[in-house]
Amino acid sequence: MVLGGGMGGLLTARVLAESFSQVSIVDRDALVGVDRPRRGVPHARHAHALLARGQQILEELFPGLRQELIDAGIPAGDIAGNLRWYFNGRRLAPGSADLLSVSATRPQLEAHVRARVAELSNVDFMERFSINGLVTGAGGRVTGVRVQSDDFGIAATLDADLVVDSTGRGSRTPAWLEELGYGRPAEDKVKVDLAYTTRHFRLKNDPYGTDLSINPVASPANPRGAFFPKLADGSSQLSLTGILGDHPPTDPEGFMAFAKTLAAPEIYEAIQDAEPLDDPVTFKFPASVRRRYELMRAFPAGLLVLGDAVCSFNPVYGQGMTVAALEAWTLRNMLAHGSVPDARRFFREIAKVVDASWTISAGADLGFPGVEGERTFQTRMGNAYMARLHAAAVNDPTVTAAFFRVAGLVDPPTALMRPAMMRRVLGAPRPARAA
Ligand SMILES: Cc1cc2nc3c(=O)[nH]c(=O)nc-3n(C[C@H](O)[C@H](O)[C@H](O)COP(=O)(O)OP(=O)(O)OC[C@H]3O[C@@H](n4cnc5c(N)ncnc54)[C@H](O)[C@@H]3O)c2cc1C
């Protein structure tokens, strides 16, 4: 029984379908055939990029998916060569990371993945059911869930050999565990007080050339950021990002004024005479939250948790879907080597996946002076080195490519510390800060 049919839930169902005779996905939304933003995933209205490692895992789980997306008209190109990146206000030299990025919107990607999952004969979708609680049996084992039909109000109990919670950031597993006497998992939080505000446009002039997207990334020197991909239907999506309460406005004038302050001037130039296709919508993200299930002393058998329900990362680093994919991949490997994994062993394994990404994103957030949190020597050194690396990448395509292989979770962060790379980074002139 998979709770939640977002990206984490779909990938989990795909993996479980190899080992279980029947897998059900329960969600309060209608899912099958839906390719637009839906109520249960309001963040899907905003720019979503799947990191390179996530693209690789999806292709392994659904062979041919990449080509299917390209055939559907979704723009694709090299992650370091065909995406225009600005860090600390400066444009990075395009490189070749040898990693393809297919620039699908979140609803498009989810719809294609969901269609593939729906083809599996032993997976079914229980749509428009709210999940109200867990059912436990002998020895405290989780034996199912209590649900309620949103259409008919009918309550039911569904039995399961295994329940996986992938209901996202709002997961109620901590509260359910407390009710069952296990206590709540400890939480790590990094308060970023971030907001995305997104609007779609039809442009009169093409600012992209051969690029798929223009992305001035928020950095301590330029804390306002944006993602500006071109979409399959020829329109453009502009997601503005503002941290520490500097939220991009939703009124059209305020939205334009915010866009004018971005490090990439071509974005404002492109939208000022463009046709807006909708009103700006906003999504507030107060903090990155990591639930430390791996540190709990006891945990009921028959229950696992993954995806945003375990860790919801600052979205500007684009890690969430890929980490969910890596966690599902971990579950797959564990199932291939035996029966249903012990929950604590599973949480210890996925903690390694989460650690790697959390170190990158939470560490980078602590580079912003206003973000609260302990700055260890390692964090300060890491951020100082990354600023030098981004400066070197302004003129050095090899550095750009190496950075995106690490940011894409394909290569480990140590790849940026190899002697040859350090020589390139530390030997490069330090450009003056952009105004
Ligand atoms: C603004 C923003 C931008 C982002 N950009 C990126 C990006 O560029 N790249 C990236 O990889 N990630 C990005 N993310 C993160 C990404 O969206 C999540 O990591 C990803 O969706 C993981 O999803 P999940 O399946 O764990 O949860 P979700 O996608 O949140 O899905 C949870 C599902 O559970 C269902 N559900 C919840 N509660 C109940 C209930 N009680 N009963 C029934 N059903 C329920 C919901 O309907 C939903 O379908 C972004 C997030 C935000 C907020």
TrEMBL record:
Gene3D superfamilies hit by this protein: FAD/NAD(P)-binding domain
Keywords in alphabetical order: Monooxygenase, Oxidoreductase
InterPro entries reported for this sequence: FAD/NAD-bd_sf
Entry-linked SUPFAM superfamilies: FAD/NAD(P)-binding domain
Tagged with keyword Cell division: no
Entry keyword annotation includes Nucleotide-binding: no
Gene Ontology terms for molecular function: monooxygenase activity
Protein's recorded name: FAD-binding monooxygenase
Organism for this UniProt entry: Dactylosporangium maewongense
Classification of source organism: Bacteria, Bacillati, Actinomycetota, Actinomycetes, Micromonosporales
